[in-house]
Amino acid sequence: MGAPGENLKVNADRLWDSLMEMAKIGPGVAGGNNRQTVTDEDGEGRALFQSWCEAVGCTMGLDQMGNMFAEYPGTDPDALPVYVGSHLDTQPTGGKYDGVLGVLGGLEVLRTMKDLGIKTKHPIVVTNWTNEEGTRYAPAMLSSGVFAGIHTQDWAYDREDAEGLKFGDELKRIGWRGDEEVGARKMHAMFELHIEQGPILEAEGKKIGVVTHGQGLSWTQVTIEGKDAHTGSTPMKMRKNAGLGMARVLEKVDDIAWSHAPDAVGAAGHIDVYPNSRNVIPGKVVFTVDFRSPELDVIEDMEARLRVEGQKIADQMGLTISFEKVGGFDPVKFDETCVSAVRSAAERLGYSHRNLISGAGHDACWINQVAPTAMVMCPCVDGLSHNEAEDISREWAAAGADVLMHAVLETAEIVE
User: Fold this and answer.
1) What is the dihedral of CA 358, 329, 294, 308, to 10 degrees?
2) Which of 232, 307, 350, 389 has a CA-to-CA distance to 291 between 20 and 30 Å?
3) Which of 206, 188, 103, 193 is nearest to 374 (CA)?
4) What local confidence, expressed as pLDDT, does residue 6 receive?
């Protein structure tokens, strides 16, 4: 047993070809992907992934939240598996790599093991977590959250999309609701490979991010109500403009985030305006404020100040305002042993690297609560993500998968 040699690397071309093949399913309109969770396209992507896993010799498990578990056997039937994976679902205008690299990078680890006859004491399981993105069904990381006991399964099943369709019903409709109890699996460890979704690695010329912490996240849905009225015939002093109220609240959101510079951030990405007509003053707006920080007390301060400042603005303008926390998680400190395995893998392979704090939420953030967990990151061009122009290089993808493989094999214990 021991760490794999530095000459052991994945098949970079095969990994890249798999990424491009998966990208054909649910194509976007500008070169990326629209493969949202529990859609027909999601089901098609899952089927392709399963076929690839079975060709390697994996058995596929499927739990009641649709989480997929492709198991590659180890030599010790009593040893807990080492898990590796991410998600196949995308944003409505998503890229080809966010999440997908982590799933197919895990698959490439197994393919390389099979090619070279590598055996490990612990089984290795490649996982596709359902609904990581959280755009069609809030919150993000929904199914890994149920797995970790953060959410109840019934609550998750009852989440509704913009059309009023329930998550549980759609999961069943596409044929990917399994029988396995969610969270029943025990893990020796879990590793997740992901693109950085930020500009640091590329700017500093580093190939690998060793993720030590994850930012905490808070999503608060804000509803402001005023009065629909004609934009031309309603005097300014008689308006109850919910859109203007939102604008003033969002200015406060920006101020609040800046007050905790440089690590805190805040913005609203999801905004609905009603009735959304050119000549009608908005009578209602619904938007979600996203606050993030690696410090829990900072997140709590930002949440509290949003409510206080938002209420002041609504009162001054004669509007009504309500707040609902619709998602979030505390800052994460990843397992030191797993993080060390990632760092030593990068060093063994001779890849430049640096420590990172993840600015985005990931399934690993929830799984970290029930098993030792760590993340590997590779650069992405201009730090762009959640955008169809998201891009990485073949070299970056291969380097990330190489480090992932070395960390996983060290943890799963190679049998000589």
Assistant:
1) 130
2) 389
3) 193
4) 84
